[in-house]
Design a protein that fits this description.
By secondary structure, this protein is mainly alpha-helical. The protein has eleven helices and two strands, in the order ββααααααααααα. The protein folds into two domains: 161 residues, no CATH class; 58 residues, no CATH class. Helix 4 crosses helix 7 and helix 9 packs antiparallel against helix 10.
């Protein structure tokens, strides 16, 4: 347990006596869910192509994301979350809602799309179809990422510079808007490598792939599994080509990869 010594003038003992103030909680009891989420998020960021502070300080974003993940599993979605794209970007009636309420509306919808895309590979979890009618899976991903980033920008514009406690969120929301696709990638790495939500190979299938290239580093195989997970999430041509390219780099026949997953090559 970490402590720090500090002098306190209001100590119940002699003035100037050394006492101790807790910096971190005592984890002799089970750790809180938020600690688990933050710990795994930081590990995922280190494994991703967008590590913490790689494009400027963003530790505050990590804390924000850890809170989102905690709320995702412990609370229902906010009632302001709506499906689709058109209704989300339609201007809200200023007469019926305060500036703060409108900011919360856009922020909650952006949060929902960020978590949905990153953890589950779909832009909103309310629509019935994984891919909306009239769009390919790749087009749907691009649209949903654009909608999420725009919603964060709208929320930041509404609260920035306002004399409210919510204004401190504005820089965080702008970072999320600017690097929306990167944070989606971070959450995808969290889902695949830490939470086990990605592609699943049997031990026999994995051993079969490893046997093809015995010199392959485990980290390189992790990269192939990430590409497989991305392909299974949206079945886009871009993701498929990434699997094929990575397999060739590792000296593995792509057909064997798709056969192991029972996916037509």
């Amino acid at each position: 347990m970490s402590r720090t010594a500090t002098d306190t003038a209001d100590s119940t003992t002699d003035h100037g006596a050394t006492c101790y103030r807790l910096l971190f909680p005592d984890f002799s009891d089970p750790r809180p869910l938020s600690f688990f989420m933050l710990e795994n998020l930081l590990a995922a960021r280190a494994d991703s192509r967008f590590p913490t502070n790689s494009c400027g300080p963003d530790e505050a974003v990590n804390v924000y994301l850890a809170d989102l993940l905690t709320r995702l599993v412990s609370e229902p979605a906010p009632p302001t979350v709506i499906a689709g794209a058109t209704a989300l970007l339609t201007p809200l009636d200023k007469c019926d809602q305060s500036r703060r309420a409108r900011a919360d509306h856009y922020r909650h919808n952006a949060d929902h799309r960020l978590l949905g895309l990153g953890l589950f590979g779909r832009g909103d979890l309310l629509r019935r179809r994984d891919v909306p009618l009239g769009l390919t899976a790749e087009e749907a991903q691009v649209r949903d990422q654009h909608i999420g980033a725009q919603a964060y920008r709208l929320a930041a514009n509404l609260i920035e510079g306002r004399p409210t406690t919510a204004a401190v969120l504005a820089p965080i929301l702008r970072q999320l808007a600017q690097h929306f696709a990167d944070y989606v990638h971070v959450l995808a790495v969290l889902a695949w490598r830490r939470f086990g939500l990605g592609a699943q190979l049997s031990d026999a299938d994995l051993d079969d792939l490893l046997a093809v290239s015995s010199a392959t580093e485990p980290v390189a195989m992790d990269g192939l599994l990430d590409h497989i997970s991305a392909y299974l999430a949206d079945r886009s041509d871009t993701a498929r080509e990434a699997v094929i390219r990575r397999a060739h780099e590792l000296g593995i026949d792509p057909d064997r990869v798709f056969d192991s997953l029972s996916v037509d090559s």
